[in-house]
Design a protein that fits this description.
7 helices, elongated, 75% helix, single chain, mainly alpha
């Protein structure tokens, strides 16, 4: 078999695995629930602290001297009002929460992929098959990223 035939066979395997993973994901959409929850939490928490709490209490964030001092050192931007500087500082701190989104997604999707293979009793044949790890794992990753509508 020539190089072109081997490539065509490898691409056929990748397409078959990709189709299987897309079908599996369409059957179990709750696999993406942890990603959605952590994303919503990452959005609601900073807005709740920086916008909603001052609105509910009636006190601006700039009225706390310690927050103003920390935000002045960490953020700079002397042209902003103290409240705006504190809000900017808080939003910058909460940006780190968005790093949890891809980590949570990777863990949830990896666990779902292994459990799905185990339940379908296709994990052992997949592991026994002689193929490069990238040709087995890349369709799984693509299927998780490109969900069917």
């Amino acid at each position: 078999m020539g190089l072109g035939g081997a490539r065509a066979m490898a691409m056929a395997r990748v397409r078959a695995l990709l189709a299987k993973e897309l079908l599996d994901l369409s059957r179990n959409r709750l696999a993406l629930l942890p990603v959605g929850l952590i994303t919503i939490l990452s959005l609601v928490l900073p807005f709740g602290i920086a916008v909603a709490i001052p609105m509910l209490t009636g006190q601006e964030l700039g009225s706390d001297a310690d927050l103003v001092k920390v935000s002045g050192v960490a953020v700079g931007h002397e042209s902003l009002t103290p409240s705006a500087r504190v809000q900017l500082f808080l939003f910058q701190q909460f940006l780190l929460l968005f790093l949890l989104t891809p980590i949570t997604g990777a863990m949830a999707l990896a666990a779902h992929a292994v459990i799905g293979e185990k339940q379908a009793r296709t994990l052992e044949p997949l592991l026994r098959r002689q193929c490069r790890p990238a040709s087995c794992s890349s369709p799984k990753c693509w299927a998780r990223c490109c969900r069917p509508s």
